[in-house]
Amino acid sequence: MSTTRRTILLSTWGLFTGLALLMVSAGVFSTLVGVRAELKHLPTIVSGGITTAYYAGFLLGSWYSLRALAQVGHIRVYGALASLLSASVLITGAYDSPLVWIIMRSSTGFCFAGLYVVAESWLNGLAKNTFRGRLLGMYNVIAMGTYGVGQLLVFNFDARTLSGFAFAAVVASLAVIPVAMSEQATTPNIEHHEHISLRELARIVPTGFGTIILVGLAHGGMLGMVVIHATREGLSIGQTGLFVAILQLGGMALTWPISSASDDIDRRIIGLLISLGAIVMGAIMLTQDTDSVMTLVLLFVIGGLSFPLYAVAGAYTNDWVSPEQMSAAASQLVTLYGFGAMLGPLAAAPFLDLLGTDGYAWSIIVFHVLILVFLVYRIRAWHAPLTNKPWGDVSFHGRAFFVPATIVSFGVSGRRSKPQPPSDTSATTRQ
């Protein structure tokens, strides 16, 4: 490991540790809320609305957090949001009211959006293009893995009581300690932060802009409806927790190799290949019983292929913006993801109502088809080299993707434009 990478890891260990605790809290909390809503026999649209409220708060949090970062810095914003998150989780468990749940889910969405902006701004400000995918991959591995651990912990709690929510609130409070007390924490300089509007981001990186929205739609639908799907299929709370966690654990297992490959191979082609893989797994899922072991295996692979899409699209976007714009770009990416994820549960709900048992798998297929079609369009609109690295410098994970990526590149590349390689300065070229 180079000195630069070692320094970055040392300066971010507190952030990663705190993030891990926050995601354990989120895993427990989100599953308990979904199960509790189903135990009250709420209509699908109301259950979906609770999840949608989370992403509505998510949009507001991504907008506000960038302004707060400029005023008080990364660590103070992180501490304030983690504290508010803890209170919101506790209030949710204390009241048996869908209205309170909607308000508090909005609050938790606000908090998590801000925390993601803090984390991604922090990491992108320290990373270089040559290992940005790996660093964001590590961030996603930790986030998804510990979120899955939190979901597995719901075995120990009754969703109708306060205990599980209190546990989640305590863990969220503890997440402040490693960030606040780390002597080695080094945050990027935000004095020279430049604003970047959504319109400007879409002009500079239309591929990243569109992909992030569609990835948010897919993830919002998958995560927003999985508890409802599992509960309606008669799974116990423990089985439901496992059903949800397996998606995250799959993401944890495959994010690192996929993110590493995207540092060496055109990130758009990597995104296309893994979207295609998720579609195939969703189609196979249609042939399986909900409570079968094979369904769990398929969900593991679907999560492993789908969740790295955020890291790949985020890394691609940051390859093309200037260092001064990275904090603003991180905020806008979270906003775009939140917008897509807010619509995801509402878009997935009709699949469950109209198609019954098969509806959940069909929603996964349709959402990933949208991502695949968009990436095919963007690759045809802007042709770039499969890799800018000599073969000897391509990682093992990049080499594993090389043959299918080459086939896809030949198959979908249309008009050829002379590409400009990403740099750490600025990107003035549409791509």
Show the helix and strand layout:
Elements: H1 3-39, H2 44-72, H3 74-94, H4 98-126, H5 132-152, H6 163-174, H7 176-181, H8 198-204, H9 206-232, H10 237-262, H11 267-285, H12 293-306, H13 308-319, H14 326-355, H15 359-381, H16 396-412
What does this structure look like?
The chain has 431 residues and is mainly alpha-helical. It has a single domain, classed as Growth Hormone, Chain: A. The protein contains 16 helices and no strands. The protein has helices at residues 3-39, 44-72, 74-94, 98-126, 132-152, 163-174, 176-181, 198-204, 206-232, 237-262, 267-285, 293-306, 308-319, 326-355, 359-381, 396-412. The longest helix is centred in the first third of the chain and has 37 residues, at 3-39. The protein is globular, with a radius of gyration of 20 Å.
Please give a quick description of this structure.
The chain is built from 16 helices and no strands. It has 431 residues and is mostly helical.
